[in-house]
Amino acid sequence: LLPIVVANWKMNGSLGLLNNIILNLKAIEELTVVEIVICPPSIFLSQSTQLIQETKTNIKIGAQNCYFLDSGAYTGEISTAMLQQLGIEYVIVGHSERRKLFFESDIDVVKKVLSAQQHGIIPIVCIGESLAEREQQQTFFVLDRQLEMVLAQADFVDPNRLVIAYEPVWAIGTGSVASVEHATQVHSYIKAKVPTGVRILYGGSLKPDNAEKLFRQADISGGLVGGAALQAKDFISICESANRVFL
Ligand code: PGA
After folding, report:
1. Does residue 227 line the site of ligand 1, with CB under 6 A?
2. Which has more confidence, 23 or 117?
């Protein structure tokens, strides 16, 4: 199973940024052992998939969200069936911003996971505790709750078809990356709960200067990168760290 580095652009970025990343990546042919997934805003998905086909790069395009029904009167939503038609291979599900700002529940998350898998799209399921939850020593309780339905209902026949991203909410966009000790402890906890082979990514203030040390930890199979994915140079540097570690 290839380690993965995922760029989550959130509501940022442009086709120009994707072009820039592709150009710079092409210069680094030895990036062979890492799967690179870029998740632009949905308005760019169609042109992004075209661009990577035209340039014959190995980058995969992912969506940041999806809805769990195929079609219908759901103003503003995009279905996994539609993503599948575009050839999208990954979708981020249950990012903490979706949970918090758009009130996504654990039930919504599992429905999206199942819908993605039914359409041959790999869900990247985000889990993680908030600062308050961490301070109240609720981390493992929260992770258990967020994982419970996914583990009970998702398809694990091929463990490659589901990815977990551990993203402590207090580390997202704050510049305070999790310590190696914290990340290692939580990743090994998650690892023990999920079927063998499910990849577990770390996310939250990953930067060129801290990625390698996290990627070196036993149960971390790559990363989910927000802010640092908006600069081609930083993102590629993180991909290179992954490549060094996993080669
Ligand atoms: P960050 O975001 O790298 O900017 O902390 C990560 C994420 O939200 O996935």
Report:
1. yes
2. 117
